[in-house]
Amino acid sequence: MKIAMIGTGYVGLVSGACFAEFGPDVTCVDVDAAKIERLLKGEIPIYEPGLDALVAKGIKSGRLSFTTDLAKAVSEADAVFIAVGTPSRRGDGHADLRYVEAAAIEIAKSLQGYTVVVTKSTVPVGTGRRVAELIRGANPAAEFDVASNPEFLREGSAIGDFMRPDRVVIGAETDRARAVMQALYRPLYLMETPVVMTTLETAELTKYAANAFLATKITFINEIADLCEKVGANVQDVARGMGLDGRIGKKFLHAGPGYGGSCFPKDTIALVRTAQEYGSPARLVETVVQVNDTRKGAMASRVIAACGGSVRGKTIGVLGVAFKPNTDDMRDAPSLAIVPALQDAGAIVRAYDPAAMHEAKALLPGVHWCDDAYDAAVGADVLVIITEWNEFRALDLDRVGSSMTQKVLVDLRNVYRAEDVRALGFRYTSIGRP
Ligand code: UDX
User: Fold this and answer.
1) CA of 403 to the centre of ligand 1 (A)
2) Where is the active site (predicted)?
């Protein structure tokens, strides 16, 4: 089996390296020649635990290669995956399909022999059929089927998610296409991973429904956290008490500053737009989007309140700016709403993140970047945990406190226990806990 993976962004690179581990020969294609050069040398453009070793292993085994030559990769492939970007279109929030469409037309021209063209990027319902139309238009003689195979990879644990997924969703409508997809996922079939084999539209919608549901779950617990604060309840115990009900499940019930990242914000908005377009509004998801946006702004007010109502001229130490731990990804990170709001209110911000500072520099101007968590606390009137990196979970709080101007800790991820921190003389605010 041979695979061509079009697009070596996050999804393409992880999927390509993992498929090569499963057995097929994988050629990853990108238009960015400099990126391909770097990848050939084993340099990984993104931060993802384990990916460098997996890519190196793939290259060494000869099963993983990188090229800018789309035509050659496609002509040799049994399956071509489209894993190019689908950003939100400016203005209306619809997924921007220009890269997917351009890829489809390029692929069409080089297809040889029966090939399954698979959309891997998250694409709106109907895109699979549109891709088929474009390919047929560009190359009427091509022998192909289109399949949809959405990814459910979490940044930071993407390799594990690919190798040991809860399920695989495949939209494939001919026996031939289904057989190719089954062959590609053979190791997972052997592991008895559930596979949902369905139609194109169903597979496409499943991805949006799953992400919107998870975003809803987070937003739900965040609102419960706010209520907990008012009534004097503890959201972590509420989440545990709810989550132990097997129908609810305990994951994705961590209250925090609001969800961010490359998927939830974009996919919830895209689902809202699709639903409106088809005259079947997704009102619950519309509300989730609004509540989550408002929440990120409200987090800055929480910090200001913890400082006694004003941060003008005060120094704020920030721990973590990535949208979540184990990634350098800044897309829609809560820090992008919180830090500028604090600066606008007159604060001086010192910040540290173990991986994302390089990405964050251009996005968060005026921030003083620090060497580590302790450095971020020096001279600070308040220390704010925005991202729950492991290294922030066991700080020497005595050392932290001794270098601060005032001992105030705002923990937006509920990393610490209130009694422990208060015993050390800190004023401590967290999310949804007394
Ligand atoms: C997500 C989905 O999990 C994945 O299946 C999909 O394919 C892509 O989007 P990812 O964006 O990498 O993955 O991160 P995830 O771990 O799901 O977290 C998303 C956001 O939700 C983060 O900002 C995180 O901090 C937040 N979150 C998550 C919470 O605030 N509380 C939770 O309980 C869980």
Assistant:
1) 34
2) 263
Q: Which residues contact 386 (CB under 8 A, 6 or more apart)?
A: 257, 299, 318, 319, 320, 321, 333, 334, 335, 338, 412, 413
User: Residues 372-412: pLDDT tens digits?
Assistant: 999 999 999 999 999 999 999 999 999 999 999 999 999 99
Report residue 371 CA to chain centroid gap.
Answer: 26
Run of H or E including 297: helix 283-306
Q: What sections of 307-386 are H helices per DSSP?
A: 335-344, 357-363, 373-377
Task: Please confirm, yes or no, whether 228 is among the known catalytic residues.
Answer: no
The closest of 261, 266, 384 to 327, measured between CA atoms, is: 261
| CA-angle at 359, arms to 261 and 286, nearest 5° | 20
The three-state (H, E, C) secondary structure of 190-239, written as one string: HCCCCEEEECHHHHHHHHHHHHHHHHHHHHHHHHHHHHHHHHCCCHHHHH
The pLDDT of residue 360 is 98
Which residues have any ligand 1 atom within 6 Å of their CB? Answer: 151-155, 211, 214, 218, 252-254, 256, 259-264, 323-324
Distance CA 21, CA 15 (A): 10
pTM of the predicted model as reported, rounded to 2 decimal places:
0.94
Summarize pLDDT for 272-305 with one digit per residue, the tens.
999 999 999 999 999 999 999 999 999 999 999 9
CA distances from residue 402 to 270, 374, 377, 380, 425 in whole angstroms, order as listed = 47, 10, 9, 10, 11
DSSP code of 97? -
Alpha-carbon torsion angle 7, 8, 11, 14, nearest 10: 140
Closest ligand 1 atom to 150 CA: 7
Return the ligand 1 atom nearest residue 413 CA: 30
Q: Are 323 and 332 in contact (CB under 8 A)?
A: yes
The full set of domains in the chain, from first to last, is 2-198 (3.40.50.720), 201-434 (3.40.50.720)
Report ipTM (2 d.p.). 0.92
